[in-house]
Structure formats: C-alpha cells, structure tokens
Amino acid sequence: MKVNIDINEKYDQLSITIQAKEWTKELEEIVRKLQGESSRRIIGIDEEQSILLSPEEIEFVYAKDRKVFAIINKQAIELSMRLYEIEELLKNHGFTRFSKSVVGNINKIVRFELSFNGNLCVYFQSGNKEYVSRKYVQEIKKKLILGVD
C-alpha cells in the first residue's frame, strides 16, 4: 500500500482519496477507521460475570421474553440493551434486521435457502440457523449478493 500526504495552505478542509482496483475487506476496514467507526464493544452478562463482546464475533442478536441475547458460536449471552439500540450500534458492522425480534450479522452467513412461504433461512459459520421474515428478505438478499447497504 502506498500513502501520499500533501499538506498545503490552499486546502480548506481535509479530503482523502483512495485509489484501488477493487473493493476489499482491507479497504472496508480503512474506510471504517477513517470515518471514526471504531470497533465498539458490547457488555454481555454470563452467570453473574460481565463479558466484553466484539461485534465481529456476534452472529445474531435476538429478543425473547423481554430479554436480549447475543449468539456467539452456540452460546447465548444476555445483553443489557434493547434490540433497537443494538441494531443502531451495530448497523455499520454488517448487522441488519432479520425479523421483529432478530438482528443478524450478514458477514457470518455461509449459505441461505429460500423457503416456499417467502421466508429466508440463513445458516451461520457455527451451524446456527435463523429465519428472515418476508418483510426483510429483499433487503437481506441485496446485502448478501450485491454488498449494498
């Protein structure tokens, strides 16, 4: 990677230009850092212990019985935030709404199946699966196939 910096009084504001052949994970990470979207940590509760969770390790977050849980591998960890707060916090980390009670990480999806009733079943790297309700299927398919936000 080559970095050029031009400091001159003629510039009235900071401007950054990135030239690349194609969009890569490295480029995505650079842009995220430049935009100040640092990797936020979320506090989870597991058996009276507070655990720091990184957004990259969470597969999906769901609400059940007025509690919110994050799934990491096959372990459910309770969160002290509301689902809409988690969705807002993690939207720049590849998370999107799957259903009324689930927000998922599209970067952890390995495959998906479209069912006859219009729902989408997504399978995560750990083998977990979750369903996307019809309302959100088109948006998820765009993000999965085209990488569109």
Gist of the model:
This protein is α+β, with helices and mostly antiparallel strands. It has 3 helices and 10 strands.
Please provide a written account of the structure.
This protein is an alpha+beta fold and 149 residues long. It is built from three helices and ten strands, in the order H-E-E-E-E-E-H-E-E-E-E-E-H. The protein has helices at residues 25-34, 83-90, 134-145; strands spanning 42-46, 49-53, 60-64, 67-72, 75-79, 95-99, 102-105, 109-114, 120-124, 129-132. It has a seven-stranded antiparallel sheet with strand order 2-1-5-4-3-7-6. Strands 8-9-10 form a three-stranded antiparallel sheet. A hairpin with a 2-residue loop joins strand 6 (95-99) and strand 7 (102-105).
Q: What profile does the largest beta sheet have?
A: 7 strands, antiparallel
- Distance between the amino and carboxyl termini: 26 Å
Question: What does the radius of gyration come to?
Answer: 18 Å
Average of per-residue pLDDT values: 86
Low-confidence stretches: none
Number of helices: 3
Report strand %: 25-35%
Helix content: 10-25%
**Computed structural class:** alpha+beta
How many strands? Answer: 10
Biggest sheet strand order reads: 2-1-5-4-3-7-6
Shape: globular
Following the backbone from N to C, one meets helices and strands in this order, namely HEEEEEHEEEEEH
